[in-house]
Amino acid sequence: MKKALLIICCLTICMAATAQPPRISIIRTVGKKVTNVQLPNTKGVMCNLTDYVGKKNVVLIDFWASWCRPCMEEMSYVRTAYNRYHKHGFNIVGISLDNNPAEWKAAIKNFKLNWTHLSDLQGWNNAAAQKYGIISIPSSILVNKQGKIIANDLRGEELLMRLRQIYGK
Questions:
Q1: Can you list the residues of the chain whose pLDDT is less than 70?
Q2: Which tens digit of pLDDT belongs to each residue from 96-144?
Q3: Angle value at C-alpha 145, between 93 and 59, nearest 5 degrees
Q4: Dist CA 126 CA 68 (whole Å)
Q5: Dihedral through CA 72, CA 64, CA 80, CA 83, nearest 10?
Q6: Is the entire prediction scored with pTM above 0.90?
Q7: 3-class SS at 135?
Q8: Half-sphere exposure of residue 46, counting CA atoms within 13 Å on the CB side?
Q9: CA 144, CA 146: separation in Å to the nearest integer?
């Protein structure tokens, strides 16, 4: 019995060591260009993510949901970043993992999230979340003016500090 257990443990360790890296490490690699995904905005109009990135603006793609307490706590930093740097060319595309359109839109209004918002209202099956390997939220991708990923999952003061470096303000 001990020998069988030892063999199972060894096989598990070997399989884990040789497993392919998760999709997130490939899709969200710093230096990679953002690829397109189509999602509706709050009015139901289909939008291309690539219409917002690589257009001479630094863009934060922010994955969140109205039901996610850490996401909503993070919004004060995201809102501060937007208010401070939007006039310098910074933009945000919020991608919600909500299922309920009323709750999604209420959170946008109540928290004064005055940037572009997209969602197919499919929760964790959100097309962008699936494409970019999002496995927890809040999560974000910072994209440079050329549409290339320059950072992942900047939160709080770390986001503000990175934007200070970019904009020198």
A1: 1-26
A2: 999 999 999 999 999 999 999 999 999 999 999 999 999 999 999 999 9
A3: 15
A4: 15
A5: -130
A6: no
A7: coil
A8: 4
A9: 5
